[in-house]
């Protein structure tokens, strides 16, 4: 057994791995949908797309909360 630890090697682009990490850059305006989040530290609204770094653009905090939807589901009926 070797006393040296192996260092982690990043996979190359052509190695057949597919996922959000390949082809996306932080802030990439590729036309994908964005989701609104609220920073847990400074309460700033942060818009993130797939592959973006999960970090507040104002303070750098890494805890973001997803905003609740404001649309009405239409399931409740008022009985008069």
Describe the 3D structure:
This protein is 0% helix and 18% strand. With 80 residues, it is mainly beta. The protein has a domain at 34-66: Rubrerythrin, domain 2 (Single Sheet), CATH 2.20.28. The chain has a three-stranded antiparallel sheet, with no helix packed on it. A hairpin with a 5-residue loop joins strand 1 and strand 2 (45-49). It starts with 33 loop residues before the first strand and ends in a 14-residue tail after the last strand. Residues 15-28 have low confidence and may be disordered. Belongs to the archaeal Rpo12/eukaryotic RPC10 RNA polymerase subunit family. It comes from Exophiala aquamarina CBS 119918. One of its GO terms (biological process) is DNA-templated transcription. InterPro entries: RNAP_P/RPABC4 (IPR006591), RPABC4 (IPR039747), RPABC4/Spt4 (IPR029040).
């Amino acid at each position: 057994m070797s006393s040296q630890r192996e260092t982690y090697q990043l996979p190359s682009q052509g190695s057949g791995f597919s996922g959000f990490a390949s082809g996306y850059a932080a802030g990439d305006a590729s036309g994908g949908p964005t989701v609104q989040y609220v920073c847990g530290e400074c309460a700033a609204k942060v818009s993130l797309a797939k592959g973006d770094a999960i970090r507040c653009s104002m303070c750098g905090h890494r805890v973001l909360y997803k905003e609740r939807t404001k649309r009405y589901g239409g399931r409740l009926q008022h009985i008069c």
